[in-house]
UniProtKB/TrEMBL annotation:
Cellular component annotations (GO), alphabetically ordered: cell division site; cytoplasmic side of plasma membrane
All copies of domain SHS2, residue ranges: 7-196
Membrane topology: Peripheral membrane protein
Coiled coil: none
Protein source organism: Candidatus Nealsonbacteria bacterium CG_4_10_14_0_8_um_filter_37_14
Subcellular location: Cell membrane
Quaternary organization: Self-interacts. Interacts with FtsZ.
Name under which the protein is recorded: Cell division protein FtsA
Length: 421
């Protein structure tokens, strides 16, 4: 009988820290949110922690609030890593099949994986995670389950995700100094994908875009597996900067105008004749909504241009499940229309759909409507962390809470679990 578990997902974002503490009850698919916190963050630039002490203080304050709200002591958290220093590299391992009858055994598979995990890295880089891609038997690619098949040479291709070591260290320092343990570290886009994509979409081919304040995180899936990952160092915060410069106002007012942009749109057509007035009566700010739209769209199009370049890197992929946009930037009112126009793919907003994933329900891969139920897209990464945590614990119940390094090893074993005892 599975036990009850309480897990905390901590999404350390450029503009805000989002945290969720969730109870997964024994024998039930339901999740109970014990605490949900969103607090402004500082000390980060474009998804990277540049001032660990400052971020640590912010994390400590979030943890305090979680403890008060949930009545739980938070001994460990599942945390995200972001920033354009994140890289994905492909590696292959190859072995000669050992049995005389050439039937591929579990040992052969494990030896091939071990060989693939051994490769040299540029200085100051470290591997955080591994993702299996495919097996190749005697040059025949695309094999997912080689156990028992016959062959002379067995190869495996894996993707390794790594980070710039000093930034990775800043993350661990910031969390540990806030007085909690790190139970796992998961890349932001992979975490958001966990919360927003269905297995069906991943099978068909889909792009997950998490538009945050400092970065736009992208993950591409096909045949159920991750095939590409990128972090574009531009996010919705840059739109705020552009508005501040473009209509000559301070950042707080520019942020407000951006979030109220929907009010300047009517059926997606701006009332261009009228000039809007906000600010105090002593110091009124007048701007044309047409200019506002131009400023916002120019930056969004720049982001989509860079997204297009990333998609082209895996040009063989058709992506019938289109683009799923999440993160705070997904709340810009006309983002779906712009994405369709610029990227020429179907597009929808992704909200955390944990109930569907846990209940094993799947949609048809692409639905033009946003999910009817679901959470604020700002909480996608935090939800993904919580879902990954629950999945890990339920698949390794006897292991309790091994440390982060061990979890990475366990994860690749689990993902390839069909092959490894
Ligand atoms: N209604 C809205 N309309 C437009 N933008 C919005 C809206 N609500 C939030 N945002 C923007 O979303 C961004 C915050 O989103 P999010 O919390 O996903 O980013 P983050 O995780 O802090 O950043 P990153 O992932 O880049 O490190 C801010 O730039 C904010 O202005
Ligand atoms: Mg984010």
């Amino acid at each position: 009988m599975p036990k009850s578990h309480i897990v905390t997902g901590l999404d350390i974002g450029t503009s805000a820290i989002k945290a969720l503490t969730v109870l997964k009850k024994k024998g039930s698919q339901d999740l109970e949110v014990l605490s949900k916190v969103l607090k402004p963050n500082s000390g980060m630039r474009r998804g990277v922690i540049v001032k660990p002490e400052e971020v640590s203080r912010n994390i400590a304050s979030v943890l305090d609030q979680i403890r008060t709200e949930s009545g739980q002591k938070i001994d460990g958290v599942y945390v995200n890593i972001g920033g354009s220093h994140i890289f994905l590299t492909s590696s292959r391992g190859s072995v000669v099949v050992s049995r005389a009858d050439q039937s591929i055994s579990r040992e052969d598979i494990e030896r091939a994986i071990q060989a693939a995990k051994t490769f040299s890295l540029p200085p100051n880089r470290e591997i955080i995670d591994f993702f299996p891609k495919q097996f190749i038997i005697d040059k025949e690619p695309g094999i997912k389950e080689p156990l028992g098949m016959r062959g002379v040479r067995l190869e495996v291709e894996i993707l390794a995700m790594g980070a710039f070591s000093p930034y990775f260290k800043n993350l661990t320092t910031a969390v540990l100094s806030a007085g909690t343990q790190i139970l796992d570290i998961i890349c932001s886009s992979i975490s958001s994908a966990k919360a927003c994509l269905t297995p069906q979409q991943k099978e068909l081919g889909v792009v997950l875009l998490d538009i945050g304040a400092g970065t736009t995180d992208l993950a591409i899936y096909e045949e159920g597996a991750l095939i590409h990952l990128a972090v574009i160092p531009i996010g919705s915060g840059h739109i705020t900067n552009d508005i501040a410069i473009g209509i000559r106002t301070d950042m707080a007012t520019a942020e407000r105008i951006k979030k109220e942009f929907v009010h300047y749109l009517k059926g997606n057509i701006l009332k261009t004749k009228k000039k809007e007035k906000i600010g105090s009566s002593l110091n009124p700010l007048t701007f044309s909504p047409k200019l506002l739209r131009k400023i916002i769209e120019a930056r969004v199009c720049e982001i989509f241009d860079l997204v297009q370049k990333e998609i082209k890197k895996v040009s063989s992929v058709l992506l019938p499940a289109g683009i799923v946009i999440t993160g705070g930037g997904a709340k810009l009112p006309n983002i779906v229309e712009l994405a369709k126009k610029e990227l020429k793919l179907p597009c929808r907003i992704g909200t955390p759909i944990f109930h569907q994933i846990l209940a094993g329900k799947e949609d048809s891969g692409f639905s033009p409507e946003p999910a009817e139920e679901g959470e604020d897209p700002v909480f996608s990464t935090a939800w993904g962390l919580v879902l990954s945590a629950i999945e890990q614990i339920e698949q390794e119940p006897e292991k309790g809470f091994p440390d982060f390094r061990k979890r990475v090893i366990n994860r690749i074993k689990r993902t390839l679990g069909v092959f490894i005892p």
